[in-house]
Design goal:
Strand 7 and strand 8 form a beta hairpin. The protein is α+β, with helices and mostly antiparallel strands. The strands form six sheets. A five-stranded antiparallel β-sheet has the order 17-16-15-14-18, covered by helices on one side. The chain has six helices and 18 strands. Among the domains are: 131 residues, Beta Complex (Beta-clip-like); 87 residues, SH3 type barrels, CATH 2.30.30. Helix content is 17%, strand content 22%.
Length: 352
């Protein structure tokens, strides 16, 4: 059979298309309905751990001085519960700890991820609902993605803006280090914002590496939407918030307002917390109530001076209060962290 001439083949195909166009008539613009576009999740590659596209910085745990000596309590074989010093300092236990194989404060990759499912919301696109009950304080999932530097982050943001994209999956973890879950990540990328969330992001040190865990801030029922506060950094036009919370701030990027507190009031807050341990060395021992009559228990960020010998560090910032052990995490001027029972220390608030 003789070979077909390529020119005649193109001509034949062209004639077929011309016939079709005549039968169709004038072209009609076709557009998919909005609900279809909104529901279609942005494609991404599932990963379990962060992928570093920038230099990976690991800290030696022995330099941080973070370790525990937990031992099993009576009637329980597991160790490193809520009173574990490593966990209180947002660090997983490591080889320098003495807790052994029964440790509960494991690295994120060895913790069970809570059951959850992807759903479509009315106003916020895709979202995540809990597929099991979650207790307050429990680990939900790790936020993972590609770890990039600030320069790459800026380039990606501009490219996304030029494409008209409004969904961003960026989370800053350290200076010049950002997790971008746009192209690679897990279900955590679909957790929506709320001005009154039921989970929070926590920055942990896992085997010397800074990672982001999402933890429940209250009990969450099966079928409830998982949310956290994005603390959104604006890039481009304002975005409306549709979380529906009672205290909704209406716009993403509007930070929650915190009333300014006098040094005396802050001192009373610290006193209120350490009073639960049965003693104070300075300050008012009466529980502090604000003007609305509600009991306050937050003095994070206040600067204190602890009475110590001159050759020892004494100035620090209150970073965290653990209500189970009734101890405060104090970061000192040299960057070191100590977990202290303030009722056993001589201290005073520093007015800056």
């Amino acid at each position: 059979m003789p070979a077909m001439n390529k020119n005649s083949e193109r001509s034949h195909i062209g004639n077929v298309f011309n016939k079709l166009l005549k039968q169709i008539g004038n072209p009609v613009d076709f557009e998919l309905p909005d609900w279809f576009n909104k529901w279609k999740p942005m494609p991404y590659t599932f990963i379990k751990r962060n992928i570093y596209l920038t230099k990976k910085i690991k800290r030696r745990l022995e330099d941080d001085g973070i370790f525990c000596s937990c031992s099993p309590s009576q009637g329980s074989s597991s160790v490193c519960g809520r009173d574990c010093h490593c966990g209180m300092l947002l660090s997983s236990c490591s080889s320098v700890c003495k807790c052994g194989s029964s440790c509960l404060n494991k690295p994120f990759q060895h913790r069970p991820v809570k059951k959850m499912k992807l759903v479509q919301t009315e106003k916020c696109g895709s979202g995540i609902v809990a597929d099991e009950d979650i207790k307050q304080g429990e680990f939900v999932i790790e936020y993972v993605g590609e770890v990039i530097d600030d320069k790459t982050c800026e380039e990606r943001l501009w490219n996304m803006k030029h494409r008209g994209e409004t969904n961003f999956y960026l989370c800053e973890i350290n200076r010049d280090m950002v997790i971008d879950a746009t192209y690679k990540g897990n279900k955590s990328r679909y957790i929506n914002h709320s001005c009154c969330p039921n989970t929070e992001m926590q920055k942990w040190i896992i085997d010397g590496e800074t990672r982001i865990g999402i933890f429940a801030t209250r009990d969450v029922k099966k079928g409830e939407h998982l949310t956290y506060d994005y603390q959104f950094v604006q890039f481009g036009a304002d975005q409306d918030c549709h979380c529906g919370a009672r205290g909704c701030r209406r716009k993403l990027g509007v930070r929650p307002t915190k009333p300014k507190m006098s040094s005396v009031a802050a001192l009373k807050l610290v006193a209120c917390q350490v009073y639960q341990n049965g003693g104070l060395h300075i300050g008012n021992s009466q529980p502090f109530h604000n003007q609305r009559g509600t009991r306050s228990c937050n003095c994070i960020g206040e600067v204190i001076r602890i009475s110590r010998p001159t050759n020892q560090r004494s100035f620090g910032i209150i970073k965290r209060f653990d209500r189970y052990s009734k101890k405060h995490s104090i970061m000192f001027e040299d960057g070191g962290i100590e977990f202290l029972d303030m009722s056993k220390e001589e201290w005073e608030l520093v007015t800056l």
